[in-house]
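Handover notes (outgoing to incoming on-call)

Open items:
1. Response regulator: sequence verified, structure written out, both below. Nothing else pending on this one.
2. Nothing else urgent.
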Amino acid sequence: MAKTILIVDDSASLRQVVNISLTGAGYDVIEAYDGVDGLRKLDGRKIHLIISDVNMPNMDGITFVEEAKKLPNYKFTPIIMLTTEAGEGKKQAGQSAGVKAWVVKPFQPAQMLTVVSKLILP
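Response regulator structure tokens:
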């Protein structure tokens, strides 16, 4: 059975690039356009990994991670931040919230898939 990954990013083109990379590698993908939509998609179904942007309207990525980690079904779901933010302060905030990996845009799909394969739970 394919593993399911939730992509949370306000950029439709970025979601599309990530979706193509992940589906090409055999993953199922769910897309959300911001943190609020991302939380709506965390409706109890099994999500094996979350990839989120930091800077989004309505709810930023760090707040989204904090809120997702409060949900019992997703408390241990690994989260990758895929963002243009490379600052140490943001990374620290992400780590404190429960982020497992930080990938800076622009990224190579192969690089992202390597990180995904290391973090995705069986």
